Request: fold
Amino acid sequence: MKSLLAFVLMSAMMCWFMFAPIYKHVFIVRQAVLQKEVDYLLEVGASGERGYISEAMVEQSRARLAELGMKPELLVYELASTSGQPADNPEAPLQRGTGLMLTIRYPYERLLEIDRLIGLEPPSPDSLMGARGLKMSEYMR
Amino acid sequence: MYKLLLIPLMMVVWMLLHVLQLDEEMAIQTLFHSKHAVNRAAHAAAQQLDSQELAGGRIVIDRQEATEAATDYMRYNLGLNEAGEPLPGSLLSAEPEIVVFDIIDGDTSFPYRYRSEAHQFEVTLQGPGVVIIALFRYPRAFTVLEPIEWKVKGVAELLPG
Reply:
């Protein structure tokens, strides 16, 4: 009887101990994947060949992230340049010296929901995690 | 009854291991993040050509503008504000210390071998370039991990074309 009581008292705690770290790990990995994607797009987009990140490149990036288990329609891409000029236009690439800024955001979904077991309030499912980067364009023509 | 003692004890050990693992994962993340920031800062600095010198046919990097560009790009990429303080969501708790900021241009003949004994760093430059070495301290979330410091090195060069 005593051990049953101990088990009931501890079960929520035990559940949290066993599974919470895995969700934290998934969270870190998602963040890392977003950062990698930002790095890749900037590397390609700010190179001397392009100077922009076009709609088509964003679509390809969504497809890559979808392969890793993210929902492509929930990804938010924010593109900007340091000069205020649009950064997604292949017709008018950013010239050398202008910075290309990219932020990719993704909702937390219900990733940290398990923290409720120990009484922590998880961030709302709609709030966004994000990764960002700024690289100077090399395009010159 | 001894089981009641054993469970909390196991939990503490378990928790320490998890905390250690999470902190190590974040440390690697921070290192990659820092490396990209340093690379982009060097890259931006290397593109600040002095246009007056260029008119005279010499390729010289403008010291002042290169420093400004490098600082701006580094701060944006690391999530620091204009005073160098971390914005919400930044992986760092303070601005990295710039240990080396060298500009190689002007009368240097290329290919040029850059060597820094003090930081055990060596690189061959094919054109005018910028070398940045920055000291990053990882802000540990838990004290289970030993303090970590990295000297992150980044080089960028300016090539015609």
Summary: Residues 2-157 of chain B form one domain.
